[in-house]
Amino acid sequence: LLLEDQLRNAIRDGEIVAHYQPKVDRDGIVVGVEALARWLPSGGEAVPPARFVPLAEETGLIVPMGDMLLREVCRSIRGWRQRGLHVGRVAVNISMVQMRDAGFAEALLECLAEHDLKGHDLEIELTESVFAEDRNAIAAQLFRLQDAGVHIAIDDFGTGFSSMSLLRHFPIHALKIDRSFVIDAVSSEESRLLLHGLIEIGHAMKLEVVSEGVESGAQFQLLRELRCDVFQGYLFSKALAPRELEAFLEAQSTGL
Ligand code: G
Ligand code: G
Ligand code: MN
Ligand code: NA
């Protein structure tokens, strides 16, 4: 069976699930989580996202997969709320293939409403490639989401081709600086200056600045000195299955 057919079956059979990677503030307190797709075939080995996410985008399967994940995420948020677990905003990655559907924003808001949730429960992460598309159509959807309280973050920031003047015309709330800028920053003066510049740009645009790929205490310390606002990476946690996330949050709230 071709991987594409396997993926189609996996979506149908519910083998694609969401895991959640925490995001923390300067004190290490969880302020939100990012939902990341995981393909867990029954009885088989997990398929890495780097293999199936690009394939899902090329084949358009990202649309039914994204719908399914959004529903699952909304169900989970609702369950956590009912149990008094505080996860903060939940971010979902949205590809430009999904954004091309003019009904995307409306469908997302409907899904929130069906689960008794509000815009402020959710954030979407977009890569800069989205802005190479029909800008007016994308902007209209983003403003609709912003009006409803959904936050919008630019993912992998610094690796794409968007200009600051372009980004200014969209209702963006946060920049997620790509982890490639964090990797060398502790050892290389040049990388550190670049990282500092990206953080300053974000703040000049009145945006929240998030660093991804934080793996060491030294990186965390440096990023705090550079006034980064939110941090994500293996130093704090990898992406966790829902049960693991619940245990993680419970341990944090009891100070363990
Ligand atoms: O987890 P990591 O290996 O977990 O993810 C690899 C890549 O796949 C990242 O670039 C991430 O943004 C992307 N990705 C993970 N989950 C989703 C998803 O649900 N939708 C989209 N569009 N991309 C995702
Ligand atoms: O592109 P996006 O930021 O959505 O992708 C998140 C990806 O980064 C996922 O593959 C996730 O598993 C991975 N990731 C998260 N934290 C770290 C980290 O600290 N180090 C590395 N190398 N990868 C990370
Ligand atoms: Mn992301
Ligand atoms: Na990234």
TrEMBL record:
Source species, domain of life: Bacteria
Name all EAL domain ranges.
1-253
Listed name of the protein: Diguanylate cyclase (GGDEF)-like protein
Species annotation: Povalibacter uvarum
Q: Quote the range of the complete protein represented.
A: 628 to 883 of 887
